[in-house]
């Protein structure tokens, strides 16, 4: 097991028996508790649905919040331990259809890691990714690992504080951009809220 310290947070990544099993422990220095969260999961054994998986994991995150801090360090730690992780800024070439490439990467990943941060819900792209991730989970039973980075899980679940503000902005934007199409924005926002 290795202990990593980056940007004031400590976390360890340990590879356990087999190529698709790991233990991630996050110990933020700002917390009074020694251990904020413990995630342990075992990805499914290779099966016909997994044979097309090119990645051990897919990282969904709000770039402005965590790209150069927690998510970057988690990505490096996982790669260092031998896990092939999809991260959009490394894997998608300029000019490619981003939505298609993200959907393909989600389908080709055994595990789906969602890093919820303060501004996660302000990104329609992050919310669209989350909807795709949960569809994958429902259809194949894949592991979804939520990580709450400087966000209380209840804020995500209840959509309060920064999440409430983000949805208010989305609703205003949809109302302005699509004045004649009342059902489409409501359907999209409902889908995002349900995913959270």
Give the CATH topology. Rossmann fold
**The level-1 CATH class:** Alpha Beta
Number of strands: 8
Radius of gyration: 17 Å
Q: Biggest sheet: strands side by side, in what order?
A: 1-2-3-4
Question: In the CATH hierarchy, what is the superfamily?
Answer: Toll/interleukin-1 receptor homology (TIR) domain
Q: How much β-strand is present in the residues?
A: 25-35%
Average pLDDT metric:
75
What's the number of helices? Answer: 8
Largest sheet: 4 strands, antiparallel
What level of helicity do the residues show?
40-55%
Helix and strand succession?
A: EEEEEHHEHHEHEHHH
Q: Report the uncertain regions.
A: 1-7, 15-25, 27-50
CATH architecture: 3-Layer(aba) Sandwich
Top keywords for this entry?
196 residues, alpha/beta, Rossmann fold, 4-stranded parallel β-sheet, 8 helices, 8 strands, globular
Describe this structure in words.
There is one protein chain. The protein is an alpha/beta fold and 196 residues long. The chain has a single domain, classed as Rossmann fold (3-Layer(aba) Sandwich). The protein is 41% helix and 25% strand. The protein has 8 helices and 8 strands; from the N terminus they run E-E-E-E-E-H-H-E-H-H-E-H-E-H-H-H. The chain has helices at 63-66, 70-80, 88-91, 98-107, 124-140, 153-158, 162-177, 183-195, and strands spanning 2-6, 9-15, 21-28, 37-42, 55-61, 85-86, 109-116, 143-148. The strands form 2 sheets. Strands 1-2-3-4 form a 4-stranded antiparallel beta sheet, with helices on one face. The chain has a 4-stranded parallel beta sheet with strand order 6-5-7-8, sandwiched between helices. Strand 7 (109-116), helix 5 (124-140) and strand 8 (143-148) form a beta-alpha-beta unit. Helix 4 (98-107) packs parallel to helix 5. The longest helix is centred in the last third of the chain and has 17 residues, at 124-140. The two termini are 32 Å apart. Mean pLDDT is 75; it is low at 1-7, 15-25 and 27-50.
């Amino acid at each position: 097991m290795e202990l990593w310290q980056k940007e004031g947070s400590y976390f360890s990544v340990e590879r356990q028996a087999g190529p698709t099993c790991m233990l991630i422990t996050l110990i933020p220095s700002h917390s009074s508790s020694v251990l904020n969260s413990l995630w342990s999961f075992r990805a499914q054994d290779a099966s016909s649905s997994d044979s097309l998986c090119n990645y051990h994991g897919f990282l969904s995150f709000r770039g402005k919040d965590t790209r150069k801090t927690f998510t970057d360090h988690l990505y490096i730690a996982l790669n260092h331990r031998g896990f092939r992780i999809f991260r959009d800024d490394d894997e998608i070439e300029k000019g490619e259809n981003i939505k298609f490439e993200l959907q393909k990467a989600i389908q080709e990943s055994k595990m789906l890691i969602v890093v919820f941060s303060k501004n996660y819900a302000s990104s329609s792209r992050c919310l669209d990714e989350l909807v795709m991730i949960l569809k994958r989970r429902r259809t194949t039973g894949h592991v979804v690992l939520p990580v709450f980075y400087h966000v209380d899980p209840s804020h995500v679940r209840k959509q309060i504080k920064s999440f409430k503000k983000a949805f208010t902005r989305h609703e205003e934007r949809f109302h302005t951009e699509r004045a004649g199409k009342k059902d489409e924005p409501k359907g999209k926002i409902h889908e995002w809220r349900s995913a959270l």
